[in-house]
Design a protein that fits this description.
- It is built from two helices and eleven strands.
- By secondary structure, the protein is mainly beta.
- It has one domain: Metal Binding Protein, Guanine Nucleotide Exchange Factor, Chain A, CATH 2.170.150.
- A hairpin with a 6-residue loop joins strand 1 and strand 2.
- The chain is globular.
C-alpha cells in the first residue's frame, strides 16, 4: 500500500496516512451538509493518520459516536472521527495527490436534498443501513 499526505488551507496542519485507501465516500446527512455547506466527501483512513501541527487542531464533539475537527487558524475542515475506534474519515479535498481516488459509496441517501445528484454509480445506503453496518455497537 502507498502513503498519502495533505494539509489544511493555510498549512498549519498537515497529515500523513500510512496505508492509503483510495475509495471516496460521501455523506448526505444534515449535520455533514451544515458543517461543510454540502455533502461531505471523505476517505476512510482508519487509525493510520499522523498529524503535524496538532496545536492548531480543534475537535468538536458532534454526536454520541463521532467528533469533527478543523484548523483553528484557517477553519479548514480536517476529519470526522469515530469515538469507539478512533477511525479517521479524512476530507478528500485535503490530500495533495488526488488522481488515484475513485467514488465508491454514498450514505444517508434518505437525507439527501433533491436539488443535487451525482452522476457516478456508487453503492448507496440509507441512515438505517449505515447505522446497522457501521454503527459503534457493530464495531466494539
Amino acid at each position: 500500500m502507498s502513503e498519502g499526505n495533505g494539509h489544511c488551507l493555510c498549512g498549519a496542519v498537515s497529515f500523513t496516512v500510512k496505508n492509503m485507501n483510495y475509495s471516496v465516500d460521501t455523506c448526505h446527512c444534515g449535520m455533514c451538509r451544515r458543517w461543510g455547506g454540502g455533502p461531505l466527501m471523505f476517505v476512510d483512513c482508519s487509525t493510520d493518520v499522523a498529524f503535524e501541527g496538532e496545536e492548531s487542531i480543534t475537535v468538536y464533539d458532534s454526536s454520541d459516536w463521532a467528533e469533527r475537527a478543523f484548523c483553528k487558524k484557517c477553519g479548514s475542515h480536517l476529519f470526522y472521527r469515530l469515538k469507539h475506534n478512533n477511525a479517521h474519515q479524512m476530507l478528500v479535498g485535503q490530500f495533495n495527490e488526488q488522481e488515484n481516488f475513485h467514488f465508491d459509496l454514498q450514505v444517508y441517501m434518505d437525507s439527501k436534498p433533491a436539488f443535487y445528484d451525482f452522476a457516478n454509480k456508487t453503492r448507496e445506503l440509507t441512515e438505517a443501513e449505515v447505522i446497522e453496518e457501521f454503527g459503534p455497537e457493530q464495531n466494539t
